[in-house]
């Protein structure tokens, strides 16, 4: 009967719990919709993680360039001080 009238069961697993939806109209369509939404949520989380990593890397590069300039200045002062003493 389910095949004739396009209804049936939808099985999903959420956090280790298995859920069964019975007598669902268009179970293949419902399952596809659930999968699309799940994939969209995963993609959104991935994009957020990438954005955080990009920001962290930018902060690291800024800190590196700031410190590199300080190190160059300190080295120049050290060289100048050594040359003045000699």
Structure description:
- The chain has 86 residues and is of the alpha+beta class.
- The protein has a two-stranded antiparallel ribbon.
- The chain has 2 helices and 2 strands.
What is the structure about, briefly put?
By secondary structure, the chain is of the alpha+beta class. The protein has two helices and two strands; from the N terminus they run H-E-E-H.
What keywords describe this structure?
86 residues; alpha+beta; two-stranded antiparallel ribbon; 2 helices; rod-shaped
Order of helices and strands: HEEH
Average pLDDT level: 89
Low-confidence stretches: none
Secondary structure: helix percent? over 70%
Radius of gyration: 30 Å
The CA-CA distance between the termini, in Å, is 100 Å
Structural class, by secondary structure, is alpha+beta
Please report the number of helical segments. Answer: 2
- Number-wise, the strands total 2
Strand order of the largest sheet: 1-2
The overall number of domains is 1
List the helices and strands and how they pair.
Elements: H1 2-5, E1 7-14, E2 17-25, H2 27-85
Antiparallel strand pairs: 1-2
């Amino acid at each position: 009967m389910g095949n004739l009238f396009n209804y049936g069961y939808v099985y999903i697993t959420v956090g280790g719990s298995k859920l069964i939806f019975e007598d669902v109209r268009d179970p293949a369509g419902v399952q596809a919709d659930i999968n699309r939404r799940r994939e969209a949520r995963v993609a959104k989380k991935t994009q957020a993680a990438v954005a955080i990593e990009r920001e962290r890397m930018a902060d690291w590069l800024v800190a590196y360039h700031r410190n590199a300039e300080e190190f160059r200045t300190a080295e120049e002062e050290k060289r100048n001080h050594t040359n003045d003493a000699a």
